[in-house]
Amino acid sequence: MYFCKLNSFPYMKVIIVGTAYPYRGGLATFNERLALEYVEQGHDVEIYTFTLQYPSFLFPGKTQFSTDSAPEKLTIFRRINSCNPFNWLKVGREIAKKNADLVIFAYWMSFMAPCMGTIARRIRKNGHSKVIALVHNMIPHELTILDKLLPPYFVKSMDGFTALSQAVVDDINKFDKRNCPKNFAPHPIYDHYGEKMSCEAALQQLKLDTDCRYVLFFGFIRAYKGLDLLLQAFAQEELKNQNVKLIVAGEFYEDEQLYQKMIDQLGIRDKVILHTDFIPNEQVKIYFSAADIVAQPYKTATQSGVTQIAFHFEKPMLVTNVGGLAEIVPNGKIGYVVEPNPKEIAAALKDFFANNRKESFESHIKEEKKKYAWSRMTDAIANL
Questions:
Q1: pLDDT digits 0-9 by tens, 117-156
Q2: Predicted TM-score (pTM) of this structure
Q3: Distance between CA atoms of 201 and 172, rounded to whole angstroms?
Q4: CA-to-CA distance for 317 and 294, rounded, in angstroms?
Q5: Which of 182, 192, 224, 362 counts the highest number of beta carbons within 10 A?
Q6: Of 324, 325, 383, 304, which is closest to residue 132 (Cα–Cα)?
């Protein structure tokens, strides 16, 4: 359910609790961009992030840390140790003393529930701060027993919830017995990666054939994101004989050899371009500018930041009919919504290239993207 537009709201002291620089990835990017929106609206904003985000054995990638420069205009404090309960009490007291008008907890996984729930309880004792959860995922894609046991502790510590998809609102309701205020605000556009390049210039930078057409799979590679389905789609007759290739741009968060073996078994080695290191911010525009269409063949999902990068660069999208993805991509207008199976994915991509849908889809994206301004996210939180 969408929210009403607030014409204005007064000056506030805002604190965002969650991952941020020097940590990398989409969640850090989201929190920093949200903070910047509040700064641009004239509010006093701070981010509290981690000294220890995950123990190393829980982190599947090569490094948790960014190689980019620190974001400008933002005040970021590294204070939180996700594994130390004494630290949670200390940080909670520190934030409580600041008497912020609004404290936003950017929540994404059950592991953070004890830490964030404890900090929030300490903050609420000041009798002033409103404590709001901004929930990316309430129930993770790969479930464990902890995902049933830990979330209620976090949910009980909040005054209200803004979720990035209706599916997440539904998941929050499974744990919320107090019927707290909730609303849904779609993931805003990631608009800080620079301007779109010409396709030819981008392909030249990537040293790719400018006569070929390209599908982009972007982001961390995990089982639920369905890269295997996309690889199988490229082995279908609909695509096998077309001058179309797949660019996979993102770091493996699971066994790379499973995918390498699949590529060879399917006989599509010449159709797949693997750039499987972490893609730094300054290179994101190159990959999206080079692509004709962005594919998200997810097996499960709530929402995705990749969709909002594609909106920024005005790229057509193929998404699967899971979670909140279909809420964001009108089928047949700016892209395709298909079931998560190789044949439907291949058929949609064949239609896109064979019938030259790119220009039509891009013209509709220019209008559709106006729905996803960052001010709409801050309005949604204010409405709580």
A1: 999 999 999 999 999 999 999 987 677 888 999 999 999 9
A2: 0.80
A3: 45
A4: 5
A5: 182
A6: 383
